[in-house]
Amino acid sequence: MVQAVMEKQLEQAAGRETVLSVRDLTVGFGDNIVLDKLNLDVLRGEILGFVGASGTGKSVLMRTVLRLLPKRSGTIEILGAEYDKVSDEERLALDMRLGVLFQHGALFSALTVRENIQVPMREYLDLPQDLMDELARLKIELVGLAPEAAEKYPSELSGGMIKRAALARALALDPDLVFLDEPTSGLDPIGAAEFDELIAKLRDTLGLTVYMVTHDLDSLFSVCDRIAVLGQKRVLVEGTIEDMLACDEPWVKSYFRGKRARAIVHD
Ligand SMILES: Nc1ncnc2c1ncn2[C@@H]1O[C@H](COP(=O)(O)OP(=O)(O)OP(=O)(O)O)[C@@H](O)[C@H]1O
């Protein structure tokens, strides 16, 4: 069954551009091998939901792809380039095409929302302050925050506003691919649904590709085009929500056909 789902996905993937291709990736800490020969493809323009039991290595994979953790072996090709094989200059250019929203927002508490959004601009670009202010204003509008949010500090924002501000910072350089680590965690169901709608809208309007680590079944059912499940140190199964619902792999079955999931399906 799992094999059949994988083969169907490969067929569907044929002909679409792969923006992230991970092959035989092994990552570990001392004797603890967290990912073992893992393979994963993310296709342009899709929202990929990445799930797996707690502690299976979802964050480790995302951090390794972002070069925040070292890999033992394997290849990671991102936006058509293999990081290990490009020059420093090309690596910098690649980094600019990636946006990241870390869990809990991870905004700088001593900076206002506007200043937070301008951090990547300062790091990668050499722009006059008035242009950066205008760009920050546009990003704030894009994520649905009020203009007044620009001069507020993170401590003055609600959880939902922090997520939106962090998303605005992730979008600061108009990336092709954004990584979201549990973007709806800590939000109430209405706030989470609004955030999901925002992500779908941004994908549709900006043509973003979204890689989203999530435990949120609502997000998986409502906005993800495809889902990848991490287990046994690799991607156990990849597919649409329908594929997940038909899958007999025990963890996938209990996650997607358990009590909580059934409540969503029958909503
Ligand atoms: N810097 C590190 N040093 C040593 N071990 C680590 C490090 N980071 C992660 N690990 C280990 O890697 C494994 C996977 O952790 P990871 O945080 O990726 O899980 P996760 O799937 O994201 O979990 P959760 O859903 O709870 O966030 C765990 O066993 C963890 O202890």
Automatic annotation (TrEMBL):
<dbReference type="InterPro" id="IPR003593">
    <property type="entry name" value="AAA+_ATPase"/>
</dbReference>
<dbReference type="InterPro" id="IPR027417">
    <property type="entry name" value="P-loop_NTPase"/>
</dbReference>
<dbReference type="GO" id="GO:0016887">
    <property type="term" value="F:ATP hydrolysis activity"/>
</dbReference>
<dbReference type="GO" id="GO:0005524">
    <property type="term" value="F:ATP binding"/>
</dbReference>
<comment type="similarity">
    <text>Belongs to the ABC transporter superfamily.</text>
</comment>
<dbReference type="Pfam" id="PF00005">
    <property type="entry name" value="ABC_tran"/>
</dbReference>
<keyword id="KW-0067">ATP-binding</keyword>
<keyword id="KW-0813">Transport</keyword>
<feature type="domain" description="ABC transporter">
    <location>
        <begin position="20"/>
        <end position="257"/>
    </location>
</feature>
<protein>
    <submittedName>
        <fullName>ABC transporter ATP-binding protein</fullName>
    </submittedName>
</protein>
<dbReference type="InterPro" id="IPR017871">
    <property type="entry name" value="ABC_transporter-like_CS"/>
</dbReference>
<dbReference type="InterPro" id="IPR003439">
    <property type="entry name" value="ABC_transporter-like_ATP-bd"/>
</dbReference>
<keyword id="KW-0547">Nucleotide-binding</keyword>
